[in-house]
Amino acid sequence: MKKLVLNTVAISVLLGSGLAVAQTEPLIGVTIYQYDDNFMNLMLSEINKESANFKDVRFLMNDSQNSQAIQNNQIDILLAKKVKVLAVNLVDPPAAKTVIAKAKKHNVPVIFFNKDPGAKLLASYNHAYYVGSSPKNSALEQAKLIAKHWNANKQFDLNQDGKIQFAMLTGQPDSTAAEVRSKYVIEELHNLGIQTEALFVDTAMWNGNMARDRMELWLNDTKGKQIEMVIANNDAMALGALESLSAQNKQLPVFGIDALPETLTLIKTGKITATVLNDGAYQSKVLVELARNLALGKNAAEGMPWKPENNSILSPDIAIDKDNVEQYRK
């Protein structure tokens, strides 16, 4: 009888220790503002691909369906599941303060990616990070591309007044990236000696379908025929604008940011003029590596070729047009 009791205890201990081993695999909670977004869908695929290389951590992926309420609920559930790290692609950038408060309360590191919460908020929590690109640098590169093609193609100046009459499609109104990209692309054009006139400027919320509809309204406006160029805060909106232009058999120079695969193909064929590389593949790789290090209790950049600067890791912004597009097409 004693032997039976001992054996039972031994089995329980073994099972218990086996269960403990299974439960010690650190969890990393990831929320993406919307899977149904061209660029974020690309990042989702890359995150899944990169995370598959590691068996010592597990990534829990969540689609926030473009709802901050859903994202907040997902974060609460992930924290209840005792995730070691949160990785958040914000739905609404102002919600970063709430997300940091939740992470702080549980002493969990949080990595914001793609949507920058701003330096002030990052500095408010020692364990907050940002992985993405610099919206200012991407705007400066976009301006250089516009200047290059404007100066080389005199036919772009439809009314020959030496000034770009443009339509601009912007991202979310409360987005730092949208605000910075919109501001600095025009400022840099002026610094480069190019005059501009804004005919239409409005948000399309980073969305291609909304951009298509917005562009259609503008083209049918009394000032529609005066548009000489389309400047978009991202490629999804540039593609939406192109769809509307094509439907009206109209061809104008269109500039985006992101370097989505379909954009690169259209640059090669001459339908899109240029874009700026926002390297989602690199950002996804850094995100996975950073999250894994933090989840395993390591220093953020331990064993990595990149180093955080002010708790941010930024990918380079590279201008792409027909001259170099083949280097970036896969």
From TrEMBL:
It is found in: Periplasm. PANTHER family: D-GALACTOSE_METHYL-GALACTOSIDE BINDING PERIPLASMIC PROTEIN MGLB, D-XYLOSE-BINDING PERIPLASMIC PROTEIN. The ABC transporter complex is composed of one ATP-binding protein (MglA), two transmembrane proteins (MglC) and a solute-binding protein (MglB). Residues 1-22 form the signal peptide. Its main location: periplasm. Keywords: Calcium, Metal-binding, Periplasm, Signal, Sugar transport, Transport. Belongs to the bacterial solute-binding protein 2 family. NCBIfam families: PRK15395.1. GO terms for biological process: transmembrane transport. This is D-galactose/methyl-galactoside binding periplasmic protein MglB. InterPro entries: Bact_Solute-Bind_Prot2, MglB-like_PBP1, Peripla_BP_I, SBP_2_dom. Transmembrane segments: none annotated. It comes from the Bacteria. Residues 28-298 form the Periplasmic binding protein domain. GO terms for molecular function: carbohydrate binding; metal ion binding. Pfam families: Peripla_BP_4. The keyword Calcium applies. The gene is rbsB. GO terms for cellular component: outer membrane-bounded periplasmic space.
